[in-house]
Amino acid sequence: xxxxxxxxxxxxxxxxxxxxxxxxxxxxxxxxxxxxxxxxxxxxxxxxxxxxxxxxxxxxxxxxxxxxxxxxxxxxxxxxxxxxxxxxxxxxxxxxxxxxxxxxxxxxxxxxxxxxxxxxxxxxxxxxxxxxxxxxxxxxxxxxxxxxxxxxxxxxxxxxxxxxxxxxxxxxxxxxxxxxxxxxxxxxxxxxxxxxxxxxxxxxxxxxxxxxxxxxxxxxxxxxxxxxxxxxxxxxxxxxxxxxxxxxxxxxxxxxxxxxxxxxxxxxxxxxxxxxxxxxxxxxxxxxxxxxxxxxxxxxxxxxxxxxxxxxxxxxxxxxxxxxxxxxxxxxxxxxxxxxxxxxxxxxxxxxxxxxxxxxxxxxxxxxxxxxxxxxxxxxxxxxxxxxxxxxxxxxxxxxxxxxxxxxxxxxxxxxxxxxxxxxxxxxxxxxxxxxxxxxxxxxxxxxxxxxxxxxxxxxxxxxxxxxxxxxxxxxxxxxxxxxxxxxxxxxxxxxxxxxxxxxxxxxxxxxxxxxxxxxxxxxxxxxxxxxxxxxxxxxxxxxxxxxxxxxxxxxxxxxxxxxxxxxxxxxxxxxxxxxxxxxxxxxxxxxxxxxxxxxxxxxxxxxxxxxxxxxxxxxxxxxxxxxxxxxxxxxxxxxxxxxxxxxxxxxxxxxxxxxxxxxxxxxxxxxxxxxxxxx
Length: 680
What we know:
Rossmann fold; single chain; five-stranded parallel sheet; four-stranded antiparallel sheet
């Protein structure tokens, strides 16, 4: 009689006596521990993280490497710093049978800060008593998100690594951090975080070969049954094991229809609402979401089949991966499996979206549908209206001329700019002061003194609370760059030994990857991978500065309260570089039809742009009505304008985003501003 298979759908495999399925991560983590490297495993729930560290610890024991597994969630979060650290020391003390009274030792060194005290404990107690190599596994590190003093813990781990050169014993001590969080969630300071010195271990889903032991008792159809299971789970460890466990108890002859009914019963039907894995994903997309609107909008794009490039620096994308809902395949984000695709469908997205977005989504679904039906039914609808709503038309014939492209169809002709951009001309105001000036090789345009309407205006359905209220703001005259700062302009500052080169020189959405910065082909494209301080340094090198948030918005909007920089509400790839147009940056000044009211280009799309201000959610309610400079401090620096990967709501002139000053991205650049002489 075949041995009964024990499936694991909660807790560690070892605790329940289930089948342990070895994956690539097993060998990776074991080797890193043997080499005394720091490692971390940050992924969604129920993929085998805890089982992996239990198995690794067992294997290390056979290599005479001592290990301790510390479940940080068991220590609790409603504890004092001393109680929390003593919880860690107690686990080490009891597991390794230390002789030192760790409680008295900790209190005897109370005059030291927690980070230094923990580091000294490792050096003066742990490594003095234990002469073997030691690995400390810290599980459930996401529990530290609920304690206010956890930064010191991560600083201590970083300090051990930094001190290896001067304290040789530290080379015998390494750490493995395991949990459901992103590195920036746990500690935001890149100079103190241990995550940029450690090695990340990825836990992938099962493949068919790895998962076969789960169905080996299913008879001659075992391989076929597993294939049917994978159609729904794609090898997700928990979903696969739970489905196989259910099928193993079934008294029916297993076929494709039985598997489909099992999926509906366990996951996609009414009973599936109680599944703890699906509840976890729901919680990650709602209660634990850093930005529900942004996360759900990004997921909607992924689910609808759009090409969404993976980017660890994107909070929404990183959070979606952490939830387990999506995964990266060759740098492109995909829904992880068919069960998730079915449960978290468009209706679910709509029901769980913020109310203002629900209204917009309903409008966006119903209005085009109604007009499309009207267009299809009526021969009297104009050709331009048909084109706007993308009703099928004959394939266009494209004829290229200089300096424009003429796109001809059987019904209409449209002229769009080519990559050739005419050189700017110097024009003067009637009083003789220039409307355009040269600043370090960059053309700047004059924005005259006066009032404009700042914030989300009437008719803007996408306007959020942090853009409100809309109010009149007066600004003195100033100049602002006509174009986003290009690679060529930025390189001049680097060559002058003032600016630092961009963090990366490749454009990561390219396949194959090509040099972006320093490549003459991209000299006139906006510089990217620059953080806020790098942008500030460049502008100051030009005797300029970053524009304030108010200056940026006025330059983009003008005095007629535009929602987009151009007149009207039309969005098209012929006037703005946004989602799915070219999927990368474009030469600055390419989109003539997307110019702002003062002649600035690309203030919507192409790249997000740093501005000078700190971000505050309530700033628009509290700011000065004249020349506002932003709050004195905040949760990050403001970015404006949207990028080549943005949706239409990001392109609005009042859209506000924020990121830490040390953030950089392939979607983020900047432009500079400069004070203008007072008008006579």
